[in-house]
Every structure is written in C-alpha cells, then in structure tokens.
Amino acid sequence: MAAPDRKRRHKAQYVQGPAVKRGRAGAPRQLEPGMQGILITCNMNERKCVGEAYSLLGEYGEQLYGPEKFSDQDDKLSGSEEDDVEAALKKEIDQIRTSTEQKLRRFQSVESGANNVVFIRTLGIEPEKLVHHILKDMHTTKKKKTRVILRMLPISGTCKAFLEDMKKYTETFFEPWFKAPNKGTFQIVYKARNNSHMSREEVIKELAGIVGSLNPENKVDLNNPENTIVVEIIKNVCCLSVVKDYVLFRKYNLQEVVKTNKEEGQQNLSSVTEEESSKEIKSAEDSNELKSGDRLQSEEESKRNEHDLQQV
Questions:
Q1: Which of 8, 135, 138, 265 gets the most CB atoms within 10 Å of its CB?
Q2: Is it the case that residue 15 has pLDDT exceeding 50?
C-alpha cells in the first residue's frame, strides 16, 4: 500500500508544479507560449541587464504610450458594500477577474530559460514599434545608453517550439506583413538555445514556404530585405517577430548602432590591416618554404652531379 501512496503524492506534486511558477494575480515568472515581450542578450551580467532594460524601456515607453497607470479600484469599497459582506465579496471577485492585467506592470522580467538572455514580458504595447523607436533614436543621436545590453529583439508572438505548432501559428501570424495585397522582400534569421530537436534548415524552409504561399510576390533578399523574420527558440518555446531595418540597425545591436561612421571606418580599417598582416605572414611563410624547398632541391642535384662525376 505504501508504493501507491508515494505515486499519488508524486503525481499531486507534479500537477501543482506549474502553479509555483506564477506570482500574485497569475503573473507568470518564466517564458511560455502566448507571451509578447522583448528578448535581450547581454554579456554575463543578467541582473544589471534587467536594470538597464527597465530604465530604457520605461523612458521610451512613456514617450510612446504615456506614464504607466495602475488600478487600485478593487481595494476601494463603499460604506454600503462594507455593510453587505456578500455584495462586497462578489464585487472584489469580479474586479480581480477584470483587472488582472491592470495590476501587472507594463514591463516585467521573467525567466528566459537560457544564460545571458533576459526576457521582458510586455502588456499593452507593441514590442516591434517600441524597439524600433529605441533603435531609431539611438542610431540618429549616436548616444550610448547601455553598457551590458547587446541585442534587443521584439517578440510579438510565441508558440510551442515544435514544427507543426510553428507552421500552424505562423500561417496567421505572418498575414499582416506578407498576405496579399501585402508583399515584400524578406530573410529569416534563426537562433536556438537549449534545444536540440529542431532543425534550422527545416524550420527556415517551412516558414519561407508559408510566406510564399501568402503571396507569391514575396521574395527572399539576404542583403537588404524590407522585412526580417526573427526566430528565437529557447527550450520548447518559439519566439517570433517581423522587424524593419534589421541591417541598418546592425542586427538590432545597441552597442553597434551608436557607432559613428568614423568608428566604423576605424574598425573596418583595423580588420583590413589584420587581414593584410595575416596575408603578409602567410606569404613570408610560403616564401620561406619555397626557399627551403629550392635549397633542398639544389643539394639533391649537387649530390646527383657528384655521383655522376664519380661514375665517369
């Protein structure tokens, strides 16, 4: 009898597990299908990255959407309702149901499931619009505003990271950009973290096929596309977005987008100099090898000539 009891307890713990991953008012604590948000990569310091993200998103979020508002309406009850316990309880339950999102913050960090990756869940905003606004301003002003944030990618949709789920989801998700009469050139950028069951080639092939089926005039352009389909897979969650100016904004890299033309020129010159130095070293090595080979060949010829003379 003891064994079945252990099995029942184990099963109960398993069923209750996901609830532990949620905070008050049902706020999720980890990345999951159905979310929108912003995926941010950093260099080791995730805590500082979250702080920078809150500061940056808060600043530009207020510019686009105004100050963040919170609702404490469900904490206020009239005197007549306080006298009627049943009415007050019913009122509170109804308000909790209808104001869950109002009590959640506009930006909330959740566990991404990968190292050096931060996911900021968003509510009431358009991630693509906000991130594009940030990058456009930084590209124009060349004002560096972050130290540890590297790339900032908007995520407008998420689904399970299985090919059939992704195909079904993207048939609708891609429509605003690619369904006739909409059309445009596009590329697909793919990244998978902590996931080994997805095939990059297969995913790109299937998604490109869906874009083509929505409008045959959609064409692939790997150099300077109008639209870039971002596919970020973390564990069993697929994060998706379609972004503009991916090349112009240096692959949505906040460190690169603020560099001036002079800095970029110096960087390119440095790269060219390193390449030329490598070529010179390789040329010298080849020359030394050639000289060494010629010397060995001359020594062999001298020996053969000496041998011939001895025979004579």
A1: 135
A2: no
